[in-house]
Give the backbone structure.
Amino acid sequence: MYTSYNSRTGAGAYASVGLETRAMSASPHQLITMLFDGAKIAIGMARLHMAAGETEAKGNAISKAIGIVGNGLKAALDADAAGEAGAELVGNLSALYDYVVQRLFSANLHNDVQALDEADRLLENIASAWREIDDRARV
């Protein structure tokens, strides 16, 4: 059966060092992309644990996703940097992140895979737009 990710294993330690190295050399834009990727992975893990009936592991994965959305993506929003034109967008994104967190809590509480799917879909919509901005900046 599937075993939980353990950062103390050789492979886990290697992956952790690789992630830290990527984060240290990443631009702010790339860091946000990494947060979206991390949330997607955590939601995917929660989905697998939910299907397997692994309550504790599911809760840990959902907690990780909630932390990424609430303490990473939402915390990175900066209404002052956005100026007047971007203030409404920042407000809308903040509300959307709050909603995603709410759906993740509900997924955990009710073993609701549809709530996980909705949270994943909403984050992916924002992430794809974010990646498109990055692609355009490289051209």
